[in-house]
Amino acid sequence: MKEQLQNIKEQALKTIGDCVDVKQLDDLRVKYLGKKGELTAILKSMGKLSAEERPVMGQLANDVRQSLESFIAQKQSQLKSALMEQRLKKETLDVTMPGKQQAMGVRHPLNIVLDELKEIFRGMGYTVVDGPEVEETKYVFDMLLTEDGHPARDEQDTFYITDDILLRTQTSSVQIRTMLKNKPPIAIISPGRVYRPDAVDGTHSPIFHQCEGLVIDKNITFGDLKGTLETFAKRLYGDDVKLRFRPHHFPYTEPSAEVDLQCFKCGGKGCPLCKGEGWIEMLGSGIVHPQVLINCDIDPEEYSGFAFGIGLERIAMMRYNIDDMRLLYENDQRFLAQFR
Ligand code: DAH
Fold it and tell me: Whose CA is nearest to atom 4 of ligand 1?
């Protein structure tokens, strides 16, 4: 048995010494030291030895085992570092190479303008509120004094879902919801999507954005409306802007006005941007009709207010000199990247 052990040791040390890769080394470990390995087989047969021989052989077998184990470990670390060295030689890392550019998204021009608008009105003490896009006709029309038969309710101008539910055609519905819920003083803006069955062209889209504004308090006058809108326009376009209030009609305001901005491109002389007018329409506004207040349980003897509705696309187009509204919806990267 002693010889057998010696043979195994010699043979093992030689084959392990010649071994050139990690996998082969592991196979050898199993061959000699594994559960069914050669050395293990000998250890198992120890039982047949006499009581004197057993400890001697046992000792010897363990010595062989230990020397094989440590030789394998040594060989393994040799092979691993050789492997690593090979890799290091083959692979190169140039830390001076420039990094890979990540394509970063940008804010959409409509969002840029909307954020600015919110900022301006928040600065004047307004709260930003939200309202539903799928809305009841009573909030979009009836309570805003736009009775049955009014052209604005026409099916051709409106996406109806049922007889009394529709996709809102204006954010003015939020005025009603706000006044039903809160009592004055009220100062809110409400931006959001609105829907009208318009064919798509350079200045029309079936979905566009408005921002509604509403102020109700004691002693609110047309002067407050003018001052507010002038402040707003100056913050947005700079101190030199000029506004023009033009009489108009909306069912829910009296008096009503449309507000134009003097064309910033030609300074009012008339150019293709303002279609020769010198002025560009910006929003609708007016003093809230007393009946609208009554509809919302607010006493018109005690309170008054103004309201306005701004088209966001128009603001963005004027701001960035965009001549076709479709650019705002197509999400063409070449267009959007300019707002970086
Ligand atoms: N709702 C109007 C529109 O869609 C805009 C508007 C006009 C809103 C006058 C108002 C207002 O609040 O007082 O064209």
Answer: 170
Beta carbon of 284 within 6 Å of any ligand 1 atom: yes
Ligand 1 atom closest to the CA of 214, numbered from 1? 12
> What pTM, to 2 d.p., does this model score?
0.72
Protein residue with least CA distance to atom 12, ligand 1: 308
Q: What is the pLDDT of residues 126-174, one digit of tens each?
A: 999 999 999 999 999 999 999 999 988 888 889 999 999 999 999 999 9
The amino acid occupying position 299 is: D
pLDDT over threshold 80, residue 273: no
Q: How many residues does the chain have?
A: 340
DSSP of 141-165: TGGGT--TT-GGG-GGG--EEETTE
Token pair for residue 276? 């020769």
212 in ligand 1 pocket by Cβ < 6 Å? yes
Distance CA 246, CA 289 (A): 18
Tokens at residue 13, please? 């040390």
Residue (of 243, 321, 255, 251) closest to 282 by Cα position: 243
* Residue 284 alpha carbon to ligand 1 centre in Å: 5
Does residue 309 line the site of ligand 1, with CB under 6 A?
Answer: yes
- 106 CA distance to ligand 1 middle (Å): 31
